[in-house]
Write a structure and sequence with these properties.
This protein is mainly α. It contains 15 helices and no strands. α4 packs antiparallel against α9, α4 packs across α10 and α10 runs parallel beside α15. The longest helix has 32 residues. It is globular.
Length: 266
C-alpha cells in the first residue's frame, strides 16, 4: 500500500509539472477552445440527421447522444490521464527516451503514463459531460444516488478500457517501432459506434465491441439501465470489471514488450 501511495504521488507530481509548463504558454486557452469546438462539432451531424428525419423507432437524439457521450467522455479521460502511453509509440521508442526511464528506480507504468499531460484534452471531457447532462434532461431522467454511482462506474470502466488500448498499443509498438494504424479503430473511431442504435447494429460489429473491446458494455448497457431501456441491472454493472479486464490484457502485452525491448544503443 505504501508503494502504491508513492507511485501515485509521483504520477500526480508528473501531471502537475506538465500542467504548469503548459500554462506558461500564453495561448494555451486557444488549444482548449479548439478541442472543445472540434468535439462539439463532431456530434452536430447526428443532431442534423434527427432534426431532418426524426426518430429511428424508439431511438431519439437524446438516446443516441447518451451512448455516444459515455464513450467520448471515457476516451477524453483516458486521453488526458494516460497521454504518455498515447505518445509512447511516436516518441519514446524512436528517440531513445524510453532507455532513460529504464534506468530510474520507479515504475515504468507510472513514468510513461505521467510523462505527457495536455490540459486542452480535458475539453473533450467537459463537452462529453455536457452532452450526458443534456441527454438525461431530454429524456426526463433524474438520477438517484444509485444512478450516479452507476454513471461514475461506467465512466471509470470506460477510462480503464481506453487506458488498456493505449497500453496495448505501446506494448505492440516496442516490436513495430511505431503505432499500428488499425489501433485507431479502437480509439477515435470506436466511440463513433455509439451513434448507431444498438438494435440496428450489424452483428459482427456488435460482437467485436462487446466481447473483444467492451465499448458497448461501458456505454450502451449502463445507459440502458439508467434510462430504463430494458437491459437488466447486472449488465449495467459490468462496465467497471470489463474495463479493468481489458486493461489487464493491455498490461500483459505491455510487459511482454518491455521484457523483449532492446535498447536503441544495442
Amino acid at each position: 500500500m505504501q508503494t502504491i501511495a508513492k507511485e501515485f504521488k509521483l504520477y500526480r507530481g508528473l501531471l502537475r509539472m506538465n500542467a504548469l509548463s503548459a500554462l506558461e504558454y500564453k495561448g494555451w486557452w486557444l488549444m482548449v477552445l479548439q478541442v472543445a469546438f472540434v468535439s462539439a462539432m463532431d456530434i452536430i451531424s447526428t443532431f442534423l440527421l434527427f432534426n431532418r428525419f426524426g426518430s429511428v423507432g424508439e431511438w431519439s437524439a437524446p438516446r443516441i447522444v447518451l451512448v455516444y457521450a459515455l464513450g467520448v467522455t471515457s476516451f477524453g479521460l483516458a486521453e488526458s490521464l494516460m497521454r504518455g502511453f498515447d505518445y509512447f509509440p511516436w516518441h519514446m521508442i524512436r528517440d531513445g527516451a524510453f532507455d532513460r526511464l529504464l534506468l530510474r528506480p520507479k515504475s515504468l507504468f507510472t513514468q510513461v503514463s505521467g510523462s505527457v499531460f495536455h490540459l486542452h484534452r480535458l475539453a473533450r471531457v467537459a463537452v462529453g459531460i455536457l452532452l450526458i447532462t443534456w441527454s438525461l434532461q431530454g429524456q426526463g431522467i433524474v438520477l438517484s444516488f444509485g444512478g450516479v454511482l452507476l454513471l461514475l462506474s461506467a465512466l471509470l470502466g470506460g477510462l480503464l478500457m481506453y487506458a488498456g488500448v493505449f497500453v496495448l498499443s505501446s506494448g505492440i509498438a516496442i516490436f513495430t517501432v511505431r503505432a499500428l494504424d488499425w489501433i485507431f479503430i479502437l480509439t477515435n473511431a470506436s466511440y463513433q459506434v455509439g451513434r448507431c442504435p444498438m438494435p440496428y447494429m450489424p452483428a459482427p460489429l456488435k460482437h467485436i465491441f462487446t466481447f473483444v473491446m467492451p465499448l458497448l458494455v461501458v456505454s450502451y448497457y449502463p445507459a440502458s439501465v439508467l434510462c430504463g431501456w430494458g437491459e437488466p441491472l447486472w449488465k449495467g454493472l459490468l462496465a467497471l470489471p470489463a474495463g479493468a479486464a481489458f486493461l489487464v490484457v493491455g498490461m500483459g502485452i505491455w510487459r511482454v514488450g518491455v521484457r523483449k525491448y532492446k535498447s536503441t544503443g544495442s
